[in-house]
Design goal:
Blueprint: E1 15-23, E2 27-31, E3 35-39, E4 42-50, H1 55-64, H2 76-79, E5 84-93, H3 99-107, E6 112-114, E7 130-133, H4 137-152, E8 156-159
Antiparallel strand pairs: 1-4, 1-5, 2-3, 4-7, 5-8, 6-7
Helix pairs in contact: 3-4
Length: 162
Amino acid sequence: MKVQIAFDTIPQEKGVYILILRVEELLNLGIGSLGSVSVKPGLYAYVGSARSFGGLRSRIKHHLMKEKKRLWWHIDYLTSLSNVKILCVVYGLTELDLEECIAEALSKSSCWRYAIPGFGSSDKRSYSHLFNCVCNTSQCIDDSKKALQQCVGIANTICFNA
């Protein structure tokens, strides 16, 4: 299913985000520096930042595309697969590097647990930037908003019919 979205509604400014995605079946993947990993079916959150040219709009558009020229980031190994659906993006505008703050806030949530050590955080001190949901979907999305608000102040959410 192709995601229909008016990309001009997503800011081009720099920011941070949390992708909320659903993995529909067990995945056994080789992911760059992480090696072989297994990803169980379920709901996941990925913490990222968009602090380069094109800002949030460019980065979110990249994540939504299934066909990527190159698997650049750890998350690309998931978002390029047809059995992985991005459900929502929670984002905030900032020029600051707040990925570690958001990952820390998610780790303290009752709904999120670290999924894969080092995922998306090889250039950070964070344990991981990929989390698995242990609550219901709406509660996990709400906790994601709270985590981002804690670090940025304002959280915006875009959800898709995926």
